[in-house]
Amino acid sequence: MKRYSPKTIARVAGLFYLAVIVCGVFAEFFVRGKLMVSGNATATTQNIMASPDLFRLGFVSDLMMLSAFLLLAFTLYVLFKSLSKSLSLLFLLLVVISTAILCLNMLNHLAPLLMLTKGNYMAAFSGSQGEEQVLFFLDMHKNGYMIAQIFYGAWLFPLGYLTYKSSYFPKVLGILLMLGAVSYLTDFFIYFLLPNNYRTLSPIITLPVDIAEFSMCLWLLIKGVKTPKKNTSQPTLATA
Question: What pTM does this model have?
Answer without folding.
Answer: 0.89
